[in-house]
Amino acid sequence: xxxxxxxKAINHVPTLLENAQNQLKDFPKAAQQTLNGIAQRMxxxxxxxxxxxxxxxxxxxxxxxxxxxxxPYITGSRLKPAFRLFLDMADDxxxxxxxxxxxxxxxxxxxxxxxxxxxxxxxxxxxxxPHLVYSAFDINRYASPENVEMITQLFTYxxxxxxxxxxxxxxxxxxxxxxxxxxxxxxxxLRHIFEDGVGGRTDIRRFVELGVGGGSMIGTFAKxxxxxxxxxxxxxxxxxxxxxxxxxxxxxxASQSLSLFLGKGxxxxxxxxxxxxxxxxxxPHMKKPDATDPYRGTGLIKEIVESGTNxxxxxxPNASIYxxxxxxxxxxxxxxxxxxxHVRAHMLGEEIExxxxxxxxxxxxxxLSWLISxxxxxxxxxxxxxxxxxxxxxxxxxxxxxx
Length: 403
What we know:
By secondary structure, the chain is α/β, with parallel strands linked by helices. The protein contains 14 helices and 15 strands.
């Protein structure tokens, strides 16, 4: 990530604050968090130093930016105590354990390194081979009646802590507005990447994630890749960037840096990444991506296929891209691959079948009908009765490399 010095910092602080407020005017909570962060992180000695260095965080889609301004440092969001729900998924996804937290987690620990121990927990339910992180039908099937009520209340409260493969992340719906936190897609992609032998690789120095959400994936690889010193991520939500910084920064080693960009696409990462991961939007839209909306439907998948390998480190023969895919997007995906002969892709392991749980799609009958007839969405009234979900698709993980 490029950095630009701001000479005579004391003269630039008012402009820095004004730019932050203007560029985040559509996100008032995020703007306030950012402005507070500048004030908190501007020590007096820096105000008198020769220069201040601030990371770029873009306020428009990255693919449309050619000369972005320097942005102030965006801080991690802050949480208040009152977290009682803890989810712990087995590495192989064979079991999801749902716990009640029996102690008060203080504000400092909640916003730092979390250390949840077994003695702090009461097991409420163990769900084998979960299709979702939250399924009311599974909870009713595997929990006692009194625990069903408690679990439902805890999920409704909108605060949870999740652990998978040693990475613990927090999510609070009142703070992390519209942030995609840890879900079954995240777990499935991580599982297949680790089964591909990525854990512990020493040749990965620059790691990039497109769409960081709550920071589960970038945080996991920050902890498990010993030489990954340059960690970069994007998201279209400033709240996701603040959530990621809150969840990941406490676990960074002294040699590691975390750089976050607001926007879409691959533009900032040309010719540098040793590894790129993404759980992109994978539901096709009835209107194809075009110049007016290049990221509509499977547009990001298209960009990853067509341009992703150009962002890989040419000096690392093992540099690669890992993406989550749905059976609904495979038709588009294979079409993009067919027209991009300089890349190759193969599926890792086996697919898993999961319910379609995207309300903007589930409540749109024309879209559903089109997905069923054109892209193979499964419509099962029988499964509706047994699981609570009528529409199903399959998730898979793919590895993309240059030919």
